[in-house]
């Protein structure tokens, strides 16, 4: 097969986490619309997992992705998490039809899909543990607040960028600016009370803070920002918050 990929399904798209492509020009970080894909038909409609010749499967011939890619053969298997929820897919494409013997590899491919699912599940757990380790143990710390400083924030930020690329995580970074006369320790304590265990916060100097909200999309982050503003306003502190989404590039 000319293309092999491991994808994560999120936000109506297949995010490409691992790609081995000899034909189509697809790369890590690219995404395919879920509704247009073959994989949605395999997952949601029970279409065949292995199709040596897609011309013989009307359900795949009707897929809109055919307008973008020449697909003569298809292979797709779901990747499930520990809660038996869909994480993504193991998928392969080729512009040309393949021998019918391709179907004989289904048991082997199912085993590989289960192994990949297990590996990804543990990689997500390891990523969360690494976030905590970086936040708690980073040597660059602010003396006033005890939080990671600018160098610590840079490492937190870059680490999460890699999580987005390799695991399809969607996170949000937020920057908080308060007045110069605001008490930075009160701000730090307030943020610690409002944020989740999975999140991180750093003191960037003065009354500027960086906040990482992991596994959090723009809408969820906006609600958290509202809670932060309300909590600090109640303490007579006016703050400005700016947020950016971290998604696979």
Description of the structure:
The chain is an alpha+beta fold. It has 2 domains: 3-125, GAF domain (Beta-Lactamase, 2-Layer Sandwich), CATH 3.30.450; 139-246, Alpha-Beta Plaits (2-Layer Sandwich). Helix content is 35%, strand content 27%. The chain contains 6 helices and 10 strands. It has helices spanning 39-44, 58-61, 106-137, 150-167, 184-194, 218-233, and strands at residues 3-10, 13-21, 31-33, 50-51, 73-80, 86-94, 171-178, 200-205, 208-213, 239-246. The strands form 2 sheets. A 6-stranded antiparallel sheet has the order 3-2-1-6-5-4. β8 and β9 form a beta hairpin. α3 packs antiparallel against α4 and α5 (184-194) packs across α6. The mean pLDDT is 94.
Quick recap:
Helix content is 35%, strand content 27%.
Say which CATH homologous superfamily of the largest domain is assigned: GAF domain
Beta strand %: 25-35%
Per CATH, the class of the largest domain reads Alpha Beta
Counting DSSP H or I runs of 4 or more residues, the number of helices is: 6
The shape, in one word, is elongated
Rg: 22 Å
Structural class: alpha+beta
CATH architecture of the largest domain: 2-Layer Sandwich
- Report the sheet with the most strands, covering strand number, pairing sense and barrel closure: 6 strands, antiparallel
Query: How many domains in all?
Result: 2
Low-confidence stretches: none
CA(first)-CA(last) distance: 25 Å
- On the 0-100 scale, what is the average pLDDT? 94
How much helicity do the residues have?
A: 25-40%
Number of strands: 10
What is the N-to-C succession of helices and strands?
A: EEEHEHEEHHEHEEHE
Organism: Alcanivorax sediminis
InterPro entries: GAF (IPR003018), GAF-like_dom_sf (IPR029016), GGDEF_dom (IPR000160), Nucleotide_cyclase (IPR029787), Rev_trsase/Diguanyl_cyclase (IPR043128)
Pfam families: GAF, GGDEF
Domain GGDEF: 160-249
């Amino acid at each position: 097969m000319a293309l092999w990929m491991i994808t994560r399904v999120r936000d109506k798209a297949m995010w490409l986490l691992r790609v081995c492509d000899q034909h189509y020009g697809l790369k890590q970080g690219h995404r395919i619309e879920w509704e247009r894909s073959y994989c949605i038909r395999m997952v949601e409609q029970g279409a065949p997992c292995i199709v040596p010749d897609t011309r013989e499967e009307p359900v795949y011939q009707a897929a809109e992705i055919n307008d973008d890619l020449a697909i003569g053969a298809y292979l797709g298997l779901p990747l499930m998490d520990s809660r038996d929820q869909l994480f993504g897919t193991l998928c392969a494409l080729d512009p040309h039809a393949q021998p019918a013997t391709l179907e004989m590899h289904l048991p082997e491919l199912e085993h590989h899909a289960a192994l990949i699912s297990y590996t990804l599940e543990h990689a997500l757990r390891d990523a969360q543990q690494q976030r905590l380790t970086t936040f708690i143990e980073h040597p660059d710390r602010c003396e006033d607040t005890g939080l990671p400083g600018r160098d610590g924030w840079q490492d937190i930020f870059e680490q999460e960028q890699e999580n987005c690329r390799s695991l399809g995580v969607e996170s949000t970074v937020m920057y908080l600016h308060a007045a110069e006369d605001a008490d930075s320790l009160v701000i730090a304590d307030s943020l610690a009370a409002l944020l989740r265990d999975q999140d991180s916060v750093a003191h960037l100097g003065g009354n500027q803070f960086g906040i990482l909200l992991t596994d959090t999309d723009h809408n969820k982050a906006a609600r958290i920002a509202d809670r932060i503003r309300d909590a600090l306003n109640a303490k007579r502190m006016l703050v400005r918050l700016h947020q950016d989404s971290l998604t696979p590039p």
